[in-house]
Design a protein that fits this description.
This protein is mainly α. The protein has two domains: about 40 residues, no CATH class; about 25 residues, no CATH class. About 70% of the residues lie in helices and about 0% in strands. Helix 3 packs across helix 4 and helix 5 packs across helix 6. The protein is elongated and about 50 Å long. The protein starts with a helix and ends with a helix.
Length: about 90
């Protein structure tokens, strides 16, 4: 959330990416699904049930508002992570 604010993302994309409701909703769905298990066998069983809960939560996911600006976001992230390579690329293209 702080990265999105620091990068200067605005509008609907910022509202979507700085909101934790989708993560909290997924965690809640996983809790409901895994709460049905009474006897945990091993770690692999836990992973399978958690994956099942995430697949179940996926049904309620919606499209990210402002998704049309994702290309600009990826360009900003790339420029922030590796500014030298980004500048060299711009010089090479010019």
């Amino acid at each position: 959330m702080f990265t999105v604010a620091r990068l200067g993302i605005t509008g609907a994309l910022r509202r979507s990416l700085t909101n934790t409701n989708c993560i909290e909703s997924m965690i809640s769905t996983v809790r409901v699904v895994t709460g049905r298990v009474k006897n945990w066998q091993d770690g692999d069983m836990k992973k399978r049930w958690i994956a099942t809960g995430m697949i179940e939560a996926q049904r309620s996911f919606r499209r990210v508002r402002g998704h049309t600006h994702m290309t600009a976001l990826t360009a900003l992230i790339t420029a922030t992570i590796n500014p030298v390579a980004h500048d060299n690329y711009a010089q090479a293209v010019a």
